[in-house]
Amino acid sequence: MCPKCRETMVIYELEGVEIDQCVSCRGIWLDRGEIETLTTLAGVKPDRLSTALKDAAPIRTSDRRCPRCERKMHIIVVGTQNPMELDRCPNGHGLWFDAGELQQTIANFEEGEEGAVGRHFARLFAHELKSKT
Ligand SMILES: [Zn+2]
Ligand SMILES: [Zn+2]
């Protein structure tokens, strides 16, 4: 169930990564480790992003609950140029991204050619995603 609007989540497979996306608000849930895989696929080394996500201290408790354990998630702030508020499960199950936040978060950690990550995701999400359910 979507942590934000309680609508149904659909599982998509994107280049070998399972992505849970809400059919209504288009938010995305990623299980632990999946963000690193997606980041690598986008051509960015995940080390800095991975460290930032792990080290980010919660700024407050979210109203949204983890779709895996139903615990209230913590809000963390990630990124320096364009800081994003993300919801993180306190038990480490994964992260919730509102529509568009996933691309912006990864783009924050882009090194090298500017705009490459944006173009990569535009390409990925332009394809008709194959639903597994
Ligand atoms: Zn939703
Ligand atoms: Zn959880």
Structure in words:
This protein starts with 8 loop residues before the first strand and ends with a strand. Strands 4-5-6-7-3-2-1-8 form an eight-stranded antiparallel β-sheet. It has four helices and eight strands. It has about 130 residues and is α+β, with helices and mostly antiparallel strands. A hairpin with a 5-residue loop joins strand 2 (about 15-20) and strand 3. It has one domain (about 10-130). Helix 3 runs antiparallel to helix 4 (about 115-125). The model has no long low-confidence stretch (mean pLDDT about 85). Bound molecules: zinc ion (ZN) (2 copies). One zinc ion binds next to loops.
Shape: globular
Distinct helical segment count: 4
The spatial strand order of the largest sheet comes to 4-5-6-7-3-2-1-8
Query: What profile does the largest beta sheet have?
Result: 8 strands, antiparallel
Secondary-structure-based class equals alpha+beta
What separation lies between the terminal Cα atoms?
A: 14 Å
Oligomeric nature of the chains: single chain
| Strand and helix order | EEEHHEEEEHHE
Mean pLDDT, all residues? 87
Point out poorly predicted stretches: none
User: Helix fraction?
Assistant: 25-40%
